[in-house]
Design brief:
Blueprint: H1 23-33, H2 41-54, E1 58-62, H3 65-75, E2 83-87, H4 96-100, E3 104-108, H5 119-131, E4 138-140, H6 151-160, E5 166-168, E6 176-177, E7 180-181, E8 188-192, E9 205-209, H7 212-221, H8 245-255, H9 258-275, E10 282-284, E11 291-292, E12 298-302, H10 304-307, H11 311-320, E13 326-327, E14 343-344, H12 347-355, E15 356-359, H13 367-379
Parallel strand pairs: 2-3, 2-4, 3-14, 5-8
Antiparallel strand pairs: 1-9, 6-7, 6-11, 8-9, 10-12, 12-15, 13-15
Helix pairs in contact: 1-8, 2-8, 3-7, 9-13
This protein binds pyridoxal-5'-phosphate.
Length: 382
């Protein structure tokens, strides 16, 4: 019989929050300052840390990554009826904001070298739409599982057709693309700090940009589009998307050891790869030559023919031992909610979904836990 998760204290989670102890100091400072509000010195300080880390000129700390994507798309004028080209292999928060603005998502498949948006398929899609007289209003590549998309190749197509590029770096803080930090590309990019991310604020996100107009407009939209009057004056509809000062205090604490976090995630990945070195049928997410992946999650592919059982059998076996793992994102073009949406390619992301398993990647994961996980997985071989 299965037990409820709450009855199982020793559960190994996929990517639980990891507190380093500094957070409480900054929370206490926030409380002492009485900025218990969606603004304050901790929000300002957190934004500065994010600017330093990503190399972007402007950072707007927000209530979630989804909110950040919504504001980014709004700020580059994504409008009703327009097409937005987005990675199919992603989390829905990356693309639901397209629908908030009544625009139409068009999905682009992944390539095999990075699992991210295939720049060649993107080019094909843009050309195809162009021939029909359609100009997409934005392109959204996701940096999947800590690996940057091929920014330069994607940016080239966007520049050629003058399409705003919005990079979803929710999963890649701390990674690099060539000499750039993750998120340092495009008209804007976004981060997420939800509970399972490499740093968490419990829930939160940020919009990053070098464009002052975008930053100021996004900040205004996030505060109910209030005009600069002493009373409350509004010329357009905005949102309530600002980050709370207490939440930002957690973020400041988490940012103190980001480099260590990336190193640790990479070490976890390396350990898994070594443990499965001679196991036929198990391969790991490749690292693209152009960058350094943060390995936010360690992800493997299980080829059922060579391994002897499939991804779901392994996932259930781990679950029976109170270990959380998760299938790779179900591509957006297969999601019932996007039935009928156009997709360019699709076979790669479908295969990654069918065979891909995200393994426990928490920062407190012990070597012994990883050995146990690999033993359980290997026992599934028939
Ligand atoms: C790729 C991707 N995009 C967007 C989001 C949305 O972020 P949030 O959960 O902070 O709204 C997430 C994370 O949850 C994500 O993984």
């Amino acid at each position: 019989m299965r037990h409820k998760a709450t009855e199982k204290p020793n559960r190994i989670f996929l990517s639980p929050p990891f507190l380093n102890g500094d957070e409480i100091k900054y929370i206490q400072e926030a409380i002492a300052s009485n900025y218990i509000a969606p603004l304050g010195p901790q929000v300002d300080a957190f934004e500065i840390l994010l600017k330093e880390c990503t190399g972007k000129q402007y950072v707007v700390a927000l209530s979630s990554g989804t909110a950040a994507m919504h504001l980014a798309l709004h700020a580059v004028s994504v409008g009703a009826g327009s097409a937005v080209l987005a990675s199919s292999l992603t989390f829905i928060g990356s693309v639901s904001p397209i629908c908030f603005l009544n625009a139409k998502p068009v999905f682009i498949d992944s390539d095999e070298i990075s699992w991210n948006m295939d720049p060649l398929i993107l080019k094909e899609a843009v050309r195809d739409l162009d021939r029909k007289g359609q100009r997409p209003s934005a392109v959204i590549p996701t940096d999947i599982y800590g690996q940057c998309a091929d920014y330069a190749a994607i940016a080239e197509t966007c520049a050629e057709y003058e399409i705003p590029l919005i990079v979803d770096s929710a999963e890649s803080l701390g990674a690099t693309y060539k000499d750039k930090p993750a998120g340092n590309e495009g008209a804007a990019s976004i981060l997420s700090f939800n509970g399972n991310k490499i740093i968490t604020t419990s829930g939160g996100g940020a919009l990053l940009t070098d464009d002052k107009t975008i930053a100021e407009y996004a900040r205004k939209l996030s505060q109910q589009s209030r005009e600069p009057f002493p009373h409350y004056e509004h010329n357009e509809i905005g949102y309530n998307y600002r980050m709370s000062n207490i939440v930002a205090a957690v973020g400041i604490g988490q940012m103190q050891d980001l480099e260590w976090r990336v190193d640790k995630k990479r070490e976890i990945f390396k350990t898994y790869r070594n443990l499965f070195n001679d196991t036929p049928g198990i391969t790991f997410m490749p690292e693209a030559v152009y960058g350094r992946c943060s390995r936010w999650l360690s992800v493997c592919l299980i080829n059922p023919k060579d391994f002897g059982s499939d991804r779901e059998t392994i996932r259930m076996a781990l679950e029976d031992e109170n270990i959380e793992s998760r299938p790779v994102w179900k591509p957006m073009h297969l999601q019932p909610v996007f039935k009928g949406a156009r997709v360019f390619g699709g076979a790669i992301s479908e295969k990654l979904f069918e065979q891909g398993l995200c393994l426990p990647s928490g920062l407190d994961l012990a070597h012994g836990d990883q050995e146990r996980i690999s033993t359980i997985m290997k026992k599934c071989r028939k």
